[in-house]
Design brief:
Helix content: over 70%
Largest sheet: none
Order of helices and strands: H
Number of strands: 0
Mean pLDDT: 83
Length: 43
C-alpha cells in the first residue's frame, strides 16, 4: 500500500514539475515574441 502512495506522490511531483517547465517555456516564448530582436527588457 505504501508503494502506491509513493508512486502517486512521485507522479504528482513530476506533473507539477512538468507544469512549471511548460509555463516557463510559454513565458520565454511570449517574451521572445514580444521582443523579436532581443533588445528589450524581456530578454
Amino acid at each position: 500500500m505504501y508503494n502506491l502512495v509513493a508512486l502517486v506522490e512521485q507522479m504528482a511531483a513530476n506533473l507539477d514539475a512538468a507544469k512549471k517547465d511548460s509555463l516557463l517555456r510559454v513565458k520565454v516564448a511570449a517574451s521572445k515574441a514580444a521582443d523579436p530582436i532581443g533588445i528589450g527588457p524581456n530578454t
